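Format notes (please read before filing issues)

Several people have asked whether sequences and structure tokens are stored in separate files. They are not. Every record keeps both together, in the order shown below: the sequence lines, then the token lines. Line labels are part of the format and must not be stripped during preprocessing.
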Amino acid sequence: MEFHILGPVEVVVEGRGLALGPPKQRAVLVELLRARGAVARERLIASLWRDEPPKSAVGSLQVYVHGLRRALGDDRIETVGAAYRLRLDGDDRVDADEFSRLVDRARNAVTSARFADAANDVIAALELWRGAALADVAELGELSTFARELDERRVEAIELRNDAWLELGRHDLVLDEIDRLVGAEPYREELRAQQILALYRDGRQADALAAYRATRDAWDEELGIEPTPALRELERAVLRHDDSLAGPKAEQRAARPRLPQPPTPLVGRRLEIASVAALLRGPARLVTLVGPGGTGKTRVALAVAAELELEFDEGAVFVDLSPIDDPELLLPTIAEALGVTADTVGEHLATRNLLLVLDNLEQIVEGAGDVAALLSGAPRLRVLTTSRTPLRLAAENEYTVQPLPVPRPGASEAEVAQTEAVQLFIARARAVGIELDAGAEIAALCRRLDGLPLALELAAARTKLLGTQEILERIERDVSLLSTSVRDVPRRQATLAATIHWSLDLLDDDERQAFGRLGVFAGGFTVDSAAHVGVDFDAVASLVDKSLLQRREGRFTMLETVRPFAVELLNDDVRRVHAAWLTELAEGIEKQFVSNADTAALLDELEGELDNIRTALGWAVDAHETELALRLVLATRPVWEIRGRLREGAGWLDRVLEAAGDSHAELRAKVHGFAGTAAFRRGAVDAADAHWRTTLALYEQLGDREGIARGLSDVGTAAAARGEWEQSRELLEQAAAAFRELGERKRLAVVLGNLGHVAGNVGDFTAGIALTVEALELERELGDEQRETVSLNNLGSFAAEIGEHEEARRWLGECADLALRIGYREVIAHALVTYARIALAESDPAEAARFATAADVVFGDIGSEMPGVEGERFSVLKDEARGLLGDEEYARIRTEVEQAPVEEALLKAAPSPSP
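Then the structure lines:
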């Protein structure tokens, strides 16, 4: 696990952030991280609430600890008497610890006059920061003091880095941001001194003296003090042009050829620059920057060269290889850049301490042997190359330049603004005269463009004519929108399409065919799934090497900007194979739900293919592959039904049934059954009844006894929703008798649960509980966790109805525990409704309003609502709570709850769920 506190508090596992709950829950985690030992409950309470803890502080703290255990793992937070301790494993990483380690190492490097190493370490340390320390919890309790301590360490690190840069003669780097630093920290002597010295070394004596006067005036006016003796002496040294102020490598810097100067500033990439520079400072003699077209490999290479040029006696030489496509021209092109002849390149480099930057080597990668020969004959030579494919040399160190980070869906405005892709887009829009604020539209555009710097720059240029939403919509229709009329960019970068075609031109026929086949995967794929569409491991590996595929979290993906070019090569045969494979996969997973206890893992596997499922369903409907479409929408039922996607699932059901017409009666009967369930759970009882009666009629035509029993059960469920209890009971009992006779235990359990529900609604709670317990026992024998959650909720509801509130909480606690684990959000909503009923019965309308609001939030998220009579009762409950509280207080509570995680409401109700 990675624990981040240098910015918003976050815990990351395998690249994914964990849901850490509300601010005070995250604050508890910070205190446990800070202590690295047992922390007494009283200490945590004091830290969270200072001297005014509420009466519920102990209970609230338990809720927060339980929430953290759920997020991090039960074994991560240990109870030690009346204290808690966070357990860290050897592989765990805390960004604040890493920051301190790097800064300490940098200080040691300065002591040893290894200024380049020091700068590199501090840059890496500062890259760990993602905003102000503890940004989302710094104002809570006593954490503000800790946040200030961390921010102070950050400024000290910046000062250390500036000192190292000045020792390396890189006053230009100091000047890039010193005005901003001094503006933020106007009373720090060290920053003021660095500003004056950097200005003087840049040949700006008057500006250096003006900076001293600004310091003197500000300190006198705001603090009533004079500059320190050290600053006064620095002013005198500037006035007399003291030799001690000269930069250590000024003469070397002036004598060297200049690297190409990009026309626009580089945004972000400090971590990449520091990492690559560290490789070249170490034992690596050849580093290749690889990555898809448009990721900014050339810009990173130039920034690294600028970082390192003073550390090489002969500086850095940049060689642009994009104009050539003949490997025989590699050495002559290098020779021209060095100012020598091709036959003397090796001799010229033999004794020189030089960084050679070779840009765009991919189209002449066959000439890589010449690079190896140069390295062999020149022991002090370092080579940095950019290529879309590795060189495959023994000395090579690959470094993948990824696209810029993009905002995650649902990110706050502050998070969006801090994301490098957004910062680049806004900066480039500003360059064409358009001022933009970070927001949801720009975040969506950055995600659609995969964070590719080239794509972002081209899109930003269009802001002169189009709004960001219009750019996004037009890109979805036509990627050719991304082009530029700027004259000083290479032709291969004039449009995104040209950049991608540049990569495709490097493929042989087999690789091109594999690339096209893999375009069928909208949501990524594994090596095994690639094999299903006729692409073997070697082809996948080759496309990864050529930067047309990326590997993330065990899956391979194409950038969204690249995939349309693969889709152009697709045919219906590949799409048919893809849809058939997904159907078989989903059907296999569905069969395991009854026999496999790990329902959550099965759902995760199915949900992981959701984008592929959507693509396959859309194609099957449009291509009139009716049987495939019917089978696939049925097999993927769990992901629509359990994981809260009923609204989307209902849309697919409508499309598939419309396409099916009168064909495939047996499959249509099943799909109508599912469509009825989807309608029922959205509160559309009449629509559900119509679907279920169609199902019953189809099964009667087919003579399918089990299907007829299912139809009777479903129509009986609709009758119950309308309050037609006697008709419902008769239909359900017919279905139960049929399922017993057929030995269909899973469906029998469903019907028994529904019969129990009917009994409870007519006041026969004894029969209701007995029937539901029988259903629960069957479900547990079968391992049907989905239905088990429903029965547990029903038992909690019955107990609440007869006033056994503690018994109800025990059943509901077990229900919530299981439903949260498998992600069954609809049952979570129903459990919250029952908690609301209990609260109102206990004369606590405020708690009732909180639980009812949390239930509404979940129902709204999944596109569902309580049907029929149950929905009417829920409305009455909310009206009663509103009447007791008053409209204003009721509205305040709903607003408060709508902004908090639903899990918090459940944990508060049942901090120890299992009965």
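For reference, the curators noted about this record: The radius of gyration is 33 Å. Residues 45 and 58 are 7 Å apart (CA to CA).
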